[in-house]
Amino acid sequence: TDKYAVIGHPIKHSKSPFIHAEFAKQCQQDIEYTAIEVPLDSLASSLQQLRDVLKLKGINITVPFKEQAWELADNLSDRAQRAGAINTLMFENNGSMFGDNTDGIGLCRDLENHDVSLKDKRVLLIGAGGAARGVIAPLMTYQPTELFIANRTASKAKKLAELFADLGQIQGGGFSEVNNHFDVIINATAASLQGEVPDLPVSIFTEQSCCYDMMYADTDTAFIAWAKKHNVSKTVDGLGMLVEQAAEAFYLWRKIRPDTGSVMQKLRDGMQA
Ligand code: SKM
Fold it and tell me: What single DSSP character describes residue 74?
């Protein structure tokens, strides 16, 4: 049995063990996947322990360790290099740590699953932290006419826009600098976790806009409820992104691509608390 885990702090809420157990069943892979809480101040030694004592083959990494894990990885995929954060590690036979980031591709696959096209669209990305940074390059491959990164702290958004300027028309600014409407609006802040919405003008919404919240919850997230209140007809939460990023990590580790639709359905049906 090959062993894997997701690490984070906190981690109890994670649906990753359920998702990977479903993938393993479906693909007849003999693996074990658990959730492990790692102390906030000892990521480096924890990674060594997971590799050398628990003999894990790979791990997923979630908040707040993604950027620090990026620093600690020995090798990085190109997409992880650019993302500045990793959510997937593979321990190689010689002990070295290969880091990847599957969040961006996970978001893109989920947008495709929901028939959300970005080509020639005006896209608003809310937030300029690790979650936003990780998805910019993958989003730009769909050739939107414009990507505007909006953040409470304008300078962070402007910096990100500069960092990815080679990929197309990208601008950054504070919430008050957003004064237009967008075709696709993606919330990469964790505001919904506190039941809050970003301090943006409601003029960002049109009835045709599609709103995507990277967060998910059993009921509408605060952001999705806000969009619906302003008559946005298409809203999607981040549960699909979670399943798709897991599938991509599973593929990296096992070289088999699991079916995500059936696992999504089980999660939606509430088979997992
Ligand atoms: O990127 C993912 C991570 O791989 C696993 C996860 C979880 O288990 O909640 C959430 C995301 O950060």
Answer: S
